[in-house]
């Protein structure tokens, strides 16, 4: 877990760069006149960041595990895959599932309809017995509360979300007024080198 906290330096460098981004399922980067352009969805962004941070073994292990179990359809994971991965977490050497958010960890949210969202935990703003307010780093089409993305912009940024645990059930509030608070499975994971 301590290792993930040092990766926040990676995000400091990323946000110091001149870049443009949009939420897009094509998941690639390109460069024009010294400006990097990210076309990424949430899991594509998490995958790209982990590759840039040097978590190659963890990514290879995850892809191999998902392929072996006939889950992977493209060369990366989806949020909904983590419900399956969590059931087999002891079979993975380079992934650690943790009980609560830790700065630098990855939070994966899976809704009952199979859709989901994943992001990096940048800061724990406030936490009590049942409610936790977090600042997260992600690529999204629905910016969060106090978000760094400009109004009506999608893609990479930081914002505030809330997760609640009520009688053992997780609820996710994206901080976006256009989305309701929803019940979800929430996983906190940390890759290892």
Structure description:
This protein is 24% helix and 38% strand. It has five helices and ten strands. The protein has helices at 2-6, 8-16, 42-53, 56-68, 81-87, and strands at residues 19-23, 28-32, 35-40, 95-98, 106-110, 116-127, 131-140, 155-166, 169-173, 182-191. The model has no long low-confidence stretch (mean pLDDT 90).
Q: Tell me the strand percentage band.
A: 35-45%
Radius of gyration: 16 Å
User: Mean pLDDT across all residues, rounded?
Assistant: 90
> What is the spatial order of strands in the main beta sheet?
5-6-7-8-9-10
In terms of quaternary structure, what is this? Answer: single chain
What structural class do the secondary elements suggest? alpha+beta
Low-confidence stretches: none
Kindly state the percentage of residues in helix.
Answer: 10-25%
Please work out how many helical segments DSSP would assign: 5
Q: Mind summarizing the main beta sheet?
A: 6 strands, antiparallel, barrel
* Shape descriptor: globular
Task: Kindly summarize this structure in a few lines.
The chain is an alpha+beta fold and 193 residues long. The protein has helices at residues 2-6, 8-16, 42-53, 56-68, 81-87, and strands spanning 19-23, 28-32, 35-40, 95-98, 106-110, 116-127, 131-140, 155-166, 169-173, 182-191.
């Amino acid at each position: 877990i301590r290792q993930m906290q040092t990766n926040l330096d990676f995000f400091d460098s990323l946000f110091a760069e001149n870049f443009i981004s949009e939420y897009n399922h094509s998941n690639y980067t390109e460069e024009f006149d010294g400006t990097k352009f990210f076309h990424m969805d949430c899991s594509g962004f998490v995958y790209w960041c982990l590759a840039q941070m040097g978590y190659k073994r963890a990514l290879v292990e995850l892809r191999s595990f998902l392929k072996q179990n006939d889950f992977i359809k493209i060369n990366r994971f989806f949020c909904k895959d983590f419900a399956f991965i969590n059931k087999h977490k002891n079979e993975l050497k380079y992934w650690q599932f943790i009980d609560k958010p830790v700065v630098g960890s990855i939070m994966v949210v899976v809704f009952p309809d199979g859709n989901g969202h994943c992001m990096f935990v940048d800061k724990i703003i406030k936490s009590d017995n049942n409610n936790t307010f977090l600042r997260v780093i992600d690529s999204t089409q629905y910016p969060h509360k106090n978000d760094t993305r400009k109004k009506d912009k999608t893609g990479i940024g930081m914002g505030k979300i809330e997760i609640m645990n009520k009688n053992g059930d997780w609820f996710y509030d994206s901080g976006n007024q256009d989305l309701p608070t929803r019940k979800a499975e929430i996983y906190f994971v940390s890759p290892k080198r």
